[in-house]
Amino acid sequence: MALTTLDKPLERTPSASNGPSTMKALVYQAVGKKALIDRPKPKIAAPTDAIVKITKTTICGTDLHILKGDLPSCQPGRILGHEGVGIVDQVGSAVTIFKPGDHVLISCVSACGKCVYCRKQMYSHCTTGGWILGNTIDGTQAEFVHIPHADMSLYPIPDGADEEALVMLSDILPTSFECGVLNGKVEPGSTVAIVGSGPIGLAALLTAQFYSPAEIIMIDLDDNRLEVAKRFGATSTVNSTDGKAAEVVMKMTGKRGVDTAIEAVGVPVTFELCEKIVTAGGHIANIGVHGKKVDLHLENLWDRNISITTRLVDTVTIPMLFKTVASHKINPKLLITHRFKLDRILDAYETFGNAANTKALKVIIEA
Question: Which of 55, 80, 158, 320 is exposed most, by the fewest CB atoms within 10 A?
Answer without folding.
Answer: 158
